[in-house]
Fold:
Amino acid sequence: MAANYMFSLILEPQEGGGFTVLVPALPEVITEGETETEALANAEEAIRAILAYRRDHGLPIPSDARPEVRHVTVAA
Structure:
């Protein structure tokens, strides 16, 4: 039976439309989609592929990394 893993995602809306998805615990996962639903589905597929790769190559599967958002004001 396959194990279940939960990962935090960063979903970034893009200026021209669509979304980019990052997975902080799995930096190999960077994907996108035209809609939020498509972007999340693509992220799930990419996560599955990376987990399979890590398992097949004896690499550890990390715990979730919960991203924290901070704001910085910069004069330019």
Observations:
- The mean pLDDT is 95.
- The CA atoms of residues 9 and 27 lie 11 Å apart.
- DSSP finds one helix and three strands in the chain.
- The radius of gyration is 15 Å.
